[in-house]
Amino acid sequence: MILPGQKKYLLKNNFNNNLNMIKHFEIPSENGSFIHANFFEAKKPKQLLIICSATGVKQEFYHEISKFIHQEGTTAITFDYSGIGYSLKTNIKKVKSSLSDWGTNDLTAVINYSVKIYPNLPIAILGHSIGGQLIGLTKASLLAHKIILVCAQNGFWGNWSGISRVKMWTNWNILVPILIKIFGYLPSKKFSRMEDLPKYVADEWKDWCNNRNYLFAFIDNERLFFRKIKCEIISYSVAFDKYAPQKSIDKLIERYSNANIKRVQIYPENLNFDKIGHFGLFQQKSKYTFWDKLRQEVQR
Questions:
Q1: Which segments constitute the Serine aminopeptidase S33 domain (predicted)?
Q2: Of all residues in the chain, what percent carry a pLDDT higher than 70?
Q3: pTM (2 decimals)?
Q4: What is the mean pLDDT of the chain?
Q5: pLDDT of amino acid 54
Q6: What order do you get walking across the sheet with 232-238 strand by strand?
Q7: Fewer CB within 10 A of the terminal residue: the chain, N end or C end?
Q8: DSSP letters along the chain, please?
Q9: Whole-angstrom distance, CA of residue 205 vs CA of residue 279
Q10: pLDDT at res. 5
């Protein structure tokens, strides 16, 4: 099914010796931008899983776990936020989308489009890092029957401690503002594995991270949906995660005040790893541990 104004591309892939289709879509959002999404369609889908990426992380990072999950009856959906990856349609300096737009426009478009294609399937939404924050910015998230947060946190620098707090304060008050002013965007590729961030995305992220109340200090309550979400939420945190300490995890979770929340903290020894970090749960090494548990949670 192709909706008006949308493009679809099909690529054949062989997963577990079965012919399956990855469907590629350009989904229009309300602000006029197009969001590139991939649907890893299960042969006989029983539910959907929409994966919301971390900041500056292209959707390809989540493709292996999507392939794994889709083989057992769950259609997995990944997408790039506007100004990132395949959703970057112009010179990054010309991108007008902000960080909040990623939730209110991009995620809204992906959820609503998924519902139109699969109107009778339950929807689970997985938010990794900032993806778990953006879920609360769209009314469409109320359609989810389950929400899974992975290392999703409140990014205020004061939620860190020790030398990490100093580093976070320095990033948001010195490094990031200078880089944005010099380049006209945040050149993240120069010093990290992140994709470069458009100016308005980086600017808004900086402002949020410099306020004790984070995004809640800048967005009116009527435009937020954290408290309106009442489905089951599973929040996974990782011990020794330098990008999401437990205090920052707790500060975000408390905003989902009317949901049925289950908290799970994962230690490296739980998975027989030396370390996990902020991104390890989505890497191949977690295939037969966390990925399998995640699949069961989505399908339950």
A1: 44-135
A2: 93
A3: 0.92
A4: 92
A5: 98
A6: 7-15, 18-28, 34-40, 74-79, 47-52, 123-128, 146-150, 232-238, 260-266
A7: N
A8: ---TT-EEEEEEEEETTEEEEEEEEEEE-TTS-EEEEEEE--SS--EEEEEEPPTT--GGGGHHHHHHHHTTTEEEEEEPPTTSGGG--S-GGG----HHHIIIIIIHHHHHHHHHHSTTS-EEEEEETHHHHHGGG-GGGGG-SEEEEES-----GGGS-HHHHHHHHHIIIIIHHHHHHHHSEE-GGGTSSSPPEEHHHHHHHHHHHTSTTGGGGTS-GGG--TTT--SEEEEEEETT-TTS-HHHHHHHHTTSTTSEEEEEEE-GGGGT-S--TTTGGGSGGGTTTHHHHHHHHHH-
A9: 20
A10: 39
Instruction: Provide the 10 A C-beta neighbour count for residue 201.
Output: 27
Question: Which contacts qualify for 115-123: CB closer than 8 Å, 24 or more apart?
Answer: 115/140, 115/143, 116/1, 116/3, 117/1, 117/39, 118/45, 118/48, 118/75, 121/45, 121/46, 121/47, 121/48, 121/75, 122/47, 122/48, 122/146, 123/47, 123/48, 123/49, 123/50
Domains of the chain, CATH where assigned: 7-156+221-299 (3.40.50.1820)
Question: Tell me: the pLDDT tens digits for 37-52?
Answer: 999 999 899 999 999 9
Identify whether the C-beta of residue 123 lies closer than 8 Å to the C-beta of residue 74: no
Number of Cβ within a 10 Å radius of residue 18? 9
